[in-house]
Write a structure and sequence with these properties.
This protein is an alpha+beta fold and about 150 residues long. The chain has two domains: about 1-90, no CATH class; about 95-148, 2,3-Dihydroxybiphenyl 1,2-Dioxygenase, domain 1 (Roll), CATH 3.10.180. The chain has three helices and ten strands; from the N terminus they run E-H-E-H-E-E-E-E-E-H-E-E-E. It has helices at about 20-35, 40-50, 110-120, and strands spanning about 15-20, 35, 60, 65, 70-75, 80-85, 100, 120-125, 135-140, 145. A hairpin with a 2-residue loop joins strand 3 and strand 4 (about 65). The N and C termini lie far apart (about 40 Å).
Length: about 150
């Protein structure tokens, strides 16, 4: 590999979602995936104190200062990608171009539908047209996710 080439296996990445309420959606997905909501309160407070972040860009989430524009969640084991939820002014208008497929196993789909419904997800449709059962649901802002 030449010195200017990048090894694709060394590229870290995160998956970013547009959201109207990024902190609420981040909390939903953290619960779904067993992730942790990142606590950026120390950084937020430091930036405000230094005059680098206006107070209008800060919200309180669970009693802690947070960036108004978004929230991140991370896998506590450090093996799965970080998810970032960033605020956008418009609502979801069409089918997602990207979504998460959660491989829970065919025997666990019904229990996972029930669990996610309890967290605020809604059932969208079910299919079996690609060789296995797939239940499509929507997160609290309408973003699709599939359970297989």
């Amino acid at each position: 590999m030449a010195a200017t080439e990048i090894d694709p296996t060394a590229i870290a990445f995160q998956v970013t979602f547009d959201a109207h309420e990024p902190h609420a959606v981040a909390a939903f997905w953290a619960e779904v995936l067993g992730y942790e909501v990142e606590d950026s309160s120390a950084l937020v407070e430091q930036l405000v104190a230094a005059g680098q972040l206006p107070a209008s860009e800060v919200v309180q989430v669970n009693g802690r200062a947070a960036f108004r524009v978004g929230a991140g969640i991370t896998d506590p084991t450090g093996t799965r990608p970080r998810l970032l939820f960033q605020v956008v002014p418009e609502g979801k208008a069409a089918k997602n171009r990207v979504h998460l497929d959660l491989r829970v196993g065919v025997d666990n789909i019904d229990a996972e539908v029930e669990r996610l419904t309890g967290l605020g997800a809604t059932f969208a449709w079910e299919s079996n047209d690609r060789g296995g059962r797939c239940v499509t649901m929507r997160d609290p802002e309408g973003n699709e996710l599939c359970l297989t």
